[in-house]
Write a structure and sequence with these properties.
This protein is of the alpha+beta class and 415 residues long. The chain folds into two domains: 227 residues, Endonuclease/exonuclease/phosphatase (Deoxyribonuclease I, Chain A), CATH 3.60.10.10; 110 residues, no CATH class. The protein has ten helices and 14 strands. A hairpin with a 5-residue loop joins strand 6 and strand 7. Helix 7 packs antiparallel against helix 8. The longest helix has 37 residues. The termini are far apart.
């Protein structure tokens, strides 16, 4: 992996799809020393294995290792686009067709899952199939003007499957020579076995898909580059809330500051001069304005007075001539720690006072009586007639209610 990253050099990349990783771990997910994320699906050391190397600028949604020949990785590109990348290593011609059909069944399941989740689909890897050039009966949206001529039986199977699933063989388009198309070399033989398959939604976003002849990965295969016109999600900058202050420097304040600075003899040194100007600005503030933040008038507590005194002491350190720079620095650190302790203590006191106030309101639990007490029973418990006897049957209760309604509405009302 280190050699591959060094070979890529300054080339821009986002995701690398690997086949034949030959790693024994069935599932791997870790960050490399460069900060990139590795996701591997293996099972047997020295054979098969697929994986992904995701650049550190991206974050994945999920990683799904299927077996030592297939794995899926989901990435959210932006709000409108999510892509499911599938790495696949098809069995070569020495294996029977049952193993190939089993792997195609896995790819069918991934295609179905991607479309159910509204994801685009990209399948990449060593498919061990030669599709050759396009003839009159091939779908022009699936197979491009490929310069190679030979088509194998596995290539026919791949073309049929892509036509059914509406997937385009991206690196067969805009390829004008057989020298630029081959991906596998065995002696003098040159074959095209590695492909990128994209769904029709990504065809419009495909900028280029070609073989990277300039990158040597130390294998008998050549890498294939797929470039899509999509950008990473932009990080939103949090806007700071603008706080309006009730006090603004007026003409009287400006005149007072100008007069004070005219009377003060500026000291030597940038630090001492800055401290002197800061003291003049603070001393010229009106009496009803806090010198800590310039906001409207606030009632100062003893803790606030101690904090302001420490702040003033820290400001005066810059004008101290007898202290060495090391002592000034150490004293500023000590004063800063004391200020932080007082501020934390003030916040704790404020929180304690607020809690005590709330507890005082509910100390006798009188305000909770409406919530905890029993609700009054408003249902009819018993019906009595004129003689005071209890009415047991429904007809007797109805007669009593009818008489009460007649008496309440008047003697002339008829039922």
């Amino acid at each position: 992996m280190e050699r591959l990253l060094a070979e890529l050099g300054d080339q821009h990349w986002d995701l690398l799809v690997f086949t034949e990783t030959w790693r024994a771990d069935g599932e791997e997910a870790f960050d490399t020393e460069h900060g990139h994320s590795w996701f591997g699906s293996g099972g047997t050391r020295g054979r098969c294995g697929v994986g992904f190397l995701l650049h550190s600028r991206w974050r994945h949604n999920y990683f799904k290792p299927l077996n030592e020949r297939c794995a899926a990785l989901g990435i959210r590109i932006n709000k409108q686009l999510r892509i499911r990348f599938v790495a696949v290593y098809m069995p070569h011609s020495g294996h029977n067709d049952i193993e190939v059909e089993t792997l195609y069944a896995m790819l069918d399941a991934e295609c179905k899952a991607a479309r159910e989740n509204c994801e685009s689909l990209v399948i990449g890897g060593d498919l061990n199939a030669e599709v050759g050039g396009r003839d009159l009966y091939d779908d022009t949206e699936v197979l491009g003007d490929n310069p190679t001529t030979y088509r194998s039986d596995r290539g026919c199977m791949l073309l049929q499957w892509c036509s059914l699933r509406q997937l385009a063989l991206a690196n067969t388009f805009n390829c004008h020579s057989a020298e630029a198309a081959w991906t596998y070399r065995n002696g003098d033989a040159r074959r095209q076995l590695d492909y990128f398959l994209t769904d029709m939604a990504l065809v419009k976003l495909t900028l280029t898909c070609l073989v990277l002849a300039c990158v040597d990965i130390g294998s008998d295969h050549r890498p294939v580059l797929l470039e899509l016109a999509c950008s990473a999600p932009k990080k939103r900058k949090r806007k700071k809330k603008s706080c309006s202050k009730t006090w603004r420097p007026d003409n009287a304040y400006v005149q007072k500051v100008s007069a004070t600075l005219a009377e003060v003899r500026p000291p030597n040194g940038v630090d001492t001069m800055a401290a002197c100007i800061q003291n003049v600005l603070v001393q010229s503030l009106p009496d009803n304005v806090s010198d800590a933040d310039g906001d409207a008038a606030v009632s100062q507590t003893p803790a606030d007075a101690a904090i302001h005194a420490l702040i003033q002491q820290r400001r005066e350190l810059a004008m101290a001539v007898t202290l060495s720079p090391e002592n000034k620095k150490q004293q500023r650190i000590d004063i800063g720690k004391s200020i932080q302790k007082l501020i934390r203590k003030r916040l704790v006191d404020q929180k304690t006072a607020k809690i005590s106030k709330v507890l005082a309101e509910f100390r006798d639990l009188k305000q909770l009586k409406a919530l905890t007490g029993r609700r009054p029973n408003t249902t009819i418990v018993e019906v009595l007639d004129k003689e005071g006897s209890s009415c047991r049957s429904k007809s007797e209760r109805a007669e009593v209610l009818l008489l009460s309604m007649r008496s309440s509405t008047g003697p002339d009302t008829q039922s």
